[in-house]
Amino acid sequence: MKEYRDHYFLKAKREHYPARSVYKLKELDAKFRLLKPGQKVLDLGAAPGSWSLGAAERVGDHGLVLACDIQATDTAFPPQVEFAQEDVFARSAAFEARLAALGPFDVVLSDMAPRTTGTRFTDQARSLELALEALAVARQRLKPGGHFVVKIFMGPDIQELLAPMRAGFATVKSFKPKSSRAESKETFFVGLHFHGQDAPPGI
After folding, report:
1. Which terminal residue of the chain has fewer beta carbons within 10 Å of its beta carbon, N or C?
2. Which residues, 6+ apart, have CB-to-CB distance to 118 below 8 Å?
3. What GO molecular function annotations does the UniProt record carry, in alphabetical order (predicted)?
4. pLDDT at position 19, please?
5. 43 is in an annotated binding site
6. Which CATH number fits domain 21-194: 3.40.50.2000, 3.40.50.150, 3.40.50.300, 3.40.50.2300?
7. Residue 67's closest CA among 109, 127, 22, 17?
8. Across 6-32, average pLDDT
9. 202: nearest Cα among 159, 171, 173
10. pTM higher than the cut 0.85
């Protein structure tokens, strides 16, 4: 198992990404065709920045990635990435205005995970809370036809996330990338082709 983990860790170092998680995004993009040149992408919980870098490669010089995280990062981003050290869920007036000015977005990404406690039920509940917060942002900031990706630790209350996603998107798929650690409980849910803000909320 250590060799498996080291493969992606060392690959990330060789390719100058701050974390191995970029390969999860690359797998998601290859399977679902999420990212295209010229798109606007909102990356929630972006630090240290691997997903933002991966998204920036795909949207190109004429695209935009707005990367948001409470934590700072010293990652050197290309010009098409704007990093904001913000709690996006706090909904500050200034940051909401920035989101409105830059949006709507073609894709909203969330690779967020809670600080784990080692207690499975607690970690699953906190992960669900983050996923629901990310979904709320996506429903407000996605353009019709846009896509949403969210990470969650699987648990018994998963329908609390899936029901509103199925109401808001034409298609909802689950996916665990090969680059995820085999022992990880994480799964990614992908909402494709957002119906728009006037769609029934489903909750």
Report:
1. N
2. none
3. rRNA (uridine-2'-O-)-methyltransferase activity
4. 74
5. no
6. 3.40.50.150
7. 109
8. 83
9. 159
10. yes
